[in-house]
From TrEMBL:
One of its GO terms (biological process) is carbohydrate metabolic process. It comes from Linum tenue. It holds the Pfam family Glyco_hydro_1. Belongs to the glycosyl hydrolase 1 family. This is Beta-glucosidase. Gene3D superfamilies: Glycosidases. PANTHER family: BETA-GLUCOSIDASE 11, GLYCOSYL HYDROLASE.
Amino acid sequence: GQVNVRNTSLIDVTRVEYLQAYIGAVLTALRNGCNVKGFSVWSLLDVFELLGGFQTGFGLYYVDLDDPDLPRYPKLSAHWYSHFLKGGIIDSSANVELASNLSSVTDLRSQRSSY
């Protein structure tokens, strides 16, 4: 998977770029006759990593460890992957549009506390 340093940013552009390249490589393999049986994204959620603890993030969803309820927030990569799976056109303008609709975790925390 694509590791990122854990922070409160939901805009994980490097993971989106990694997924685009990875899926492109799978498509190339299929076109060249490889018998690809499946594809999986690692990982759905940011989890504890043996070597990095909670300082790294692999997930499509950010887990807010500072909140006792442990809310999950979709990152840019989650929105991108969902858009891709629904057959959406994936290009740089779509990435910018998806990113422009995201807030930071700090903004989302303040929205949660106002409920």
